[in-house]
Amino acid sequence: MRSSYAVADQWLRLRKDVLQAPDGQALPPCPVIEHPDWVDVIALTADLNIVLVDQYRHSVTSVRTEFPAGTVDDGEEPLAAIQRELLEETGYASDDWHLLGSAPVYPALQTNRIYSFLALNARPVGGQALDEGEVIDAYELPLAEFIEKVVAGAIELPALQLAGLWWLSARLTGRGVPGISIPFP
């Protein structure tokens, strides 16, 4: 295998691997996107409001509603990363954290995983501490209203965050997969 990099910065490394089949035949180049692992959180207040962020996303040229999220820094554990991201993006914190699930993001092309968490009894503890270039509006929405808006299409979450919402639903109701009950730890 031979590899070369077209892009290599702190956020993205785009690699092209040239592979060889076991019989020696050269295979078409395989692109690989190296990302740090990602984290996101469904943060619920004691009143069952969900903490959301609205953020401009240039790739789709629109402001998007999302769960607080970010990347795992080198040497950082996913839980520490999402606790940091929740505080930085929203000014909220929680002492009651649960891992909802983790999975490869896009194993056909990407190297990273996403870790989705649930934070209960989230509460404001300070102001935002945004990174340079970030413009994020953080706010609460009643969870029932949020779910209604997602179902109606008024809020369109990123696909990976929909998976986190499904994981939460499956754990809380045991109805995520017919015939399987998953106890919430």
Automatic annotation (TrEMBL):
It comes from the Bacteria. SUPFAM superfamilies: Nudix. One of its GO terms (biological process) is ribose phosphate metabolic process. Residues 34-163 form the Nudix hydrolase domain. Its cofactor is Mg(2+). Keywords: Hydrolase. It catalyses: GDP-alpha-D-mannose + H2O = alpha-D-mannose 1-phosphate + GMP + 2 H(+). The keyword Hydrolase applies. InterPro entries: NUDIX_hydrolase-like_dom_sf, NUDIX_hydrolase_CS, NUDIX_hydrolase_dom. GO terms for molecular function: hydrolase activity. It holds the Pfam family NUDIX. PANTHER family: NUDIX HYDROLASE DOMAIN-CONTAINING PROTEIN, UDP/ADP-SUGAR PYROPHOSPHATASE. Belongs to the Nudix hydrolase family. NudK subfamily. This is GDP-mannose pyrophosphatase. It comes from Reyranella soli.
